[in-house]
Design a protein that fits this description.
heterodimer, A: six-stranded antiparallel β-barrel, five-stranded antiparallel sheet, B: four-stranded antiparallel sheet, four-stranded antiparallel sheet
Amino acid sequence: MSLKAVPIRNYAGFSDKKGFPGAHYYSQGFFHSEFGAALLYSIVKRKDSTDISGLGAVKYFAKASLYNFAQDDNGKIYKEATPGAYDFALARTPGVTSNGAGLLGDQKGRLLYAGNTDLGMYDMTTWTDSWKGSLRSWQHPMDTYEDSVVMGNKTSFALLASDDSFNPDAFTLPSSFTADAVKSGVNGILLGANYLYQGVLMLWNLTTTRAIAPWKYTKGQILAIERYGSNWIVITQREILLTNGYTTSRLLGLLDDNFSFNGLETSTISPQRVLVVNDTLILLNTARTSLVSYEFGRMKPGVYMIDIPTGYWSFVPVSTLNTISIDLYAAFADNSSDQRILVGYRDNQLSKSYIGTLSNTGGSVAQLVSEELGTGPTQKTAEAVVLNIGLNSGIVDPATLTFSVSLKIYNFKRQLWGKNVTNAAGAAADKIRVDGTSATNYKAQVGDEVTVLEGPNAGQIRHIASIANNAASNETWTLDSALPNTTGSSIYLNVQPFKLVEKKTFSSLTELKTLYFDVKNRVKGKKYLVKVVIDGVTNAQLELKESVFIYNDLGYDSI
Amino acid sequence: MTQSELEQAAQAGQIETVQPSVTQNTQSQDINQSTLLDFLPVLFGLRAPQKHLTAAPTFTPKTFLEQIQFVDTGSEKDLYLYFNNAWQKSTLNALYSVQRDHKSISLPKNTITDQTGTTSIDFTPALIIGILHNQGSTTPIYFGFWLNSSTPYESSPIPCGNRPDSVTSFVGPDSSEYLNTLSFSGGTLTYHYKNNSVTTDAVVELLIGGS
């Protein structure tokens, strides 16, 4: 026996950069904490389209006169009755054509709301749907700049001056360009326009007729612009840029896509899909209009939180735990006393739209896949994992120590990510029906891990206990435990060759136990990933601390 | 490996702890730290020519460069400078710049018939003052005024001889000695002169002003 113990301690996040120091491979619901990675944040539903009949996908948020407003893709405007109470209700159905084209609280405490060709104004007394008309039909991203408001007007940027005079073509663009993003900052106001599949950044100061710095072209469309200190962060189809309006540098790329062949979704202009709070970039990754396999890997639809100074990524799914068919359009930092972060999204599988908040309570389910483990290219057997779990040191309120921990091993001998889709509803809650003849589906094996990506069972993780009708069109998997609901037809799944070592369940513990996992089947391999799945959590912010992976080094393969 | 087997192996010193070669990234970048990049707006402003405005500025400048604005309204070209909480205007294309020149025209003795002479002037003269004196003497004898395209000036108290009409006489006592009939065209001043004296050369000094 040549037993070796390697620490598992890369908890800062994952990364778009290969072999990034300190990065683990992937996680959902875990965030870098004081002593490791903990279940710190989740997206909590506040209102949905059941609570508010007719609520569409929220594309914009704004704050005006202490109240939060939301605008959906039908142009309807919702307002909090009590600031901070999340009690949104329909406030206005504009009498002009609108698919929700822009929303802004101006410097005078008024709400400006854009229809497709009209700019409306609500002064907290009267709604004027066509306050300023004759806009070109398009999205109208807006921002305040000093005492004025700058807004996109398709082939130009319009200017609403402090005396309410309106110039619809204050900054003109070439006729084929579209004005898709605008954000003020220290050096001026940064305008983002797109032409085919490239973008251009233009710095303006309102006083000149043209840009005050040379135009900067970007590869890929500009999707959104957000302030970051004295700089701006620009999300393009291909990458995330940092600019001061004069120079531009690449800040981040996309996961597992060096050349951004897949890129971010561009079909819906959503200028609020990025938000910076303190040093964290909150990026809403919306589902592609046409599903691509890329979304079944690490770059799933959901909320990415990226620590800008260090470059570590974290991921949090939306409240329905759907990570494949979810549209996310708007994130908004409410500057009320409780500093909330609002998120607007739509679950296309459940056909419901949501207003949620990023909450500082952990989710009920979380997973973390370690960094690559095992030194050298020798043959090994996985022997054990000593998992060190604690509680986030920052919590004060009482926590219930009820949860389950599953530990799994992957040995790099099969494809890590796989996708599949049900072709009929399961006969029972522990059954999954797939088309075993499909060449595009992952060929699952007994023991494989199955993650339901959408529907009522979204976020649930099980393992395949047995397979019936293998490779037939009615291939049926029996799971190692029943799901909360039967799984319907056309539900997308992740299938991965993580082998379950053990699942431990704890209920109302008085203190945490030692978590020793004996890898009884001695999984052979040269390198390993260890996956930890925590579920059934009520309110405990569990924290993964430095743990240990034990393996037996068998030496080099026989030559 | 069971927990007890692991514990036994650990007690027997059979477990080697392997430290991974990479540790956590501690090289975080403080993007918002003040650097030379903060001065790029100023440097860019210095590097490129400043564009002109088409109307008078009304904004309050935020940088030194913004304190200076060029305005071309189509009819006026103005320089605006912001100080003492207000824009100060100076119109550039209405400034009157005075130019001047001096010519010495010789009237040689024994010039008994009317002669025509020319001299070049590289601006349009508005006023010419002529002073006639004898060669070698600095004492003016006659003087006259010439106003371009204007009615000749005539004033008896001015001691300009008995022929104060600058067009016909300009300088000189009579038809025996004069420099007159000045005209200007295409950068050339044309004049007539005569000097019947058989003993004395004369000189006319022309002091020329214009724009």
